[in-house]
């Protein structure tokens, strides 16, 4: 495994953006004897973190960020959410100062088997499944990355015997250099985050970084039915391990009417799987392939599939009220995620959708709206979604100021047997700090309806 002191030769590091990943990066680098300067625009709610870093020897600068921050710096570790148009980032690149994200540190620090999972949709569910499958198989495993705990914080304490499962976003993957998972997973590619990456090609290239440093001794698990992915993985040097929900595979994961298989081996019975939705079977296939490659047992996998009911805010079942079934899919921040959520139900559905306007339209959602009887819109994209409803022949359209009001309207216009589904097809940042905040408001609203 790489030696961190050799592979990370930089002595003077600027960490741009405090947040969770910035704090983890700064703490990790200070522990490894680096000189660390941290810059953040505000100290709001972060006084304790600042005090800890300063006690450890960091130089913390708050307020407006000037290019002088880069003076004397060898490398820039930036928060994934900070865009590359940022003047500090642009100046660093002009000065040939490497610009990395915190997951680069995790890749250099982790001593055991590294599993990286990315895709436009399904990352969190697949990451959680793979982690739980390995854990239930009595394999020492950690989980981190975009899913919760910062990757470097966890990687810094792992051993050669440990597996580390990372959920990785395109924002994180764009900022890597030597990062190399032993097992990488690409679930799907769908037009997303174009406000950040500016083009689909740039987005695809950021995602493809997950396998850039792999060789034949490594594995790349990918969706064999995703046309874009099939083209992208042609560039890979890793051993390809496909998964498919449409056909039998001799070298990957697949399913039929009765079982989920890995290669020719039946791994788990379909009837025992608790998760709902065809797209969840794709996530399960990817997780099974990654977990089996990392040492999971069939018994461990079976236990997880019999008991795992989903991740919060990802097609999360809330409750039934007078025959109506409520689901929270606030994590559906793009059209593909909402399309897959809608495909999970045959019942009449009232869809709650809307949010940040990223400039896209929603025509491609129309084919998935066959069972949608009513649409409740909110946020910046409300009018665009209203037009989409007209295209789909949906006559009952209501406007809500937020998801709390949307839940109330949905209940009022619904009937017994309906599904009421929050699946926004948009990011939350026009009205909410996070998709979790949006989903929590919806869940709380549902619980007040009885």
UniProtKB/TrEMBL annotation:
Catalytic reaction list: UDP-N-acetyl-alpha-D-muramoyl-L-alanine + D-glutamate + ATP = UDP-N-acetyl-alpha-D-muramoyl-L-alanyl-D-glutamate + ADP + phosphate + H(+)
Compartment list: Cytoplasm
Annotated EC: 6.3.2.9
InterPro entries with a match to the protein in the record: Mur-like_cat_sf, Mur_ligase_C, Mur_ligase_C_dom_sf, Mur_ligase_cen, MurD
Residue ranges of domain Mur ligase C-terminal in the record: 313-426
Residues holding ATP: 119-125
Pfam families with a match to the protein in the record: Mur_ligase_C, Mur_ligase_M, MurD-like_N
Source organism superkingdom: Bacteria
PANTHER family: UDP-N-ACETYLMURAMOYLALANINE--D-GLUTAMATE LIGASE
Summary of the function given for this chain in its UniProt record: Cell wall formation. Catalyzes the addition of glutamate to the nucleotide precursor UDP-N-acetylmuramoyl-L-alanine (UMA).
Protein name: UDP-N-acetylmuramoylalanine--D-glutamate ligase
Lineage start: Bacteria, Bacillati, Bacillota, Bacilli, Bacillales
Gene this protein is translated from: murD
């Amino acid at each position: 495994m790489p030696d961190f002191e050799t592979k990370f030769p930089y002595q003077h590091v600027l960490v741009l953006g405090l947040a969770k990943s910035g704090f983890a990066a700064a703490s990790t680098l200070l522990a490894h004897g680096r000189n660390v300067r941290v810059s953040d625009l505000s100290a709001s709610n972060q006084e304790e973190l600042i005090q800890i870093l300063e006690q450890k020897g960091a130089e913390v600068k708050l307020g407006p960020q000037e290019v002088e921050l880069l003076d004397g710096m060898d490398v820039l570790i930036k928060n994934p959410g900070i865009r590359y148009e940022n003047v500090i980032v642009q100046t660093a690149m002009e000065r040939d100062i490497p610009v990395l994200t915190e997951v680069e540190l995790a890749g250099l620090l982790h001593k055991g088997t590294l599993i990286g999972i990315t895709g436009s949709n399904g990352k969190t569910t697949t990451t959680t499944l793979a982690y739980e499958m390995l854990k239930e198989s009595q394999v020492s495993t950690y989980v981190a990355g975009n899913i919760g705990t910062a990757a470097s914080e966890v990687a810094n304490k792992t051993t050669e015997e440990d597996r580390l499962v990372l959920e990785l976003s395109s924002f994180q993957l764009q900022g890597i250099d030597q990062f190399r998972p032993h097992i990488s997973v690409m679930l799907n590619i769908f037009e997303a985050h174009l406000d950040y990456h500016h083009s689909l090609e740039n987005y695809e290239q950021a995602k493809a970084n997950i396998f850039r440093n792999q060789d034949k001794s490594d594995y790349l698990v990918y969706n064999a039915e995703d046309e874009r992915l099939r083209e992208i993985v042609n560039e890979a040097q890793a051993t390809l391990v496909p998964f498919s929900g449409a056909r039998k595979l001799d070298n990957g994961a697949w399913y039929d009417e009765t079982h989920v298989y890995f290669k020719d081996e039946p791994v788990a019975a379909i009837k025992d799987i608790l998760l709902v939705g065809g797209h969840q079977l794709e996530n399960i296939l990817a997780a099974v392939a990654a977990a089996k490659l990392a040492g999971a047992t069939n018994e461990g996998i079976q236990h997880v599939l019999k008991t795992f009911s989903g991740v919060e805010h990802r097609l999360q079942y809330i409750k039934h009220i007078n025959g109506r079934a409520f689901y929270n899919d606030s994590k559906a921040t793009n059209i593909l995620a909402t399309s897959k959520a809608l495909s999970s139900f045959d019942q009449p559905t009232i869809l709650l959708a809307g949010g940040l306007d990223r400039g896209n339209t929603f025509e491609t959602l129309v084919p998935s709206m066959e069972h949608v009887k009513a649409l409740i819109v909110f946020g910046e994209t409300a009018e665009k979604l209203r037009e989409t409803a007209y295209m789909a022949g949906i006559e009952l359209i209501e406007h809500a100021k937020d998801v709390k009001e949307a839940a109330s309207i949905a209940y009022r216009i619904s009937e017994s047997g309906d599904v009421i589904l929050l699946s926004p097809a948009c990011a939350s940042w026009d009205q909410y700090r996070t998709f979790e905040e949006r989903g929590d408001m919806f869940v709380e609203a549902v619980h007040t309806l009885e």
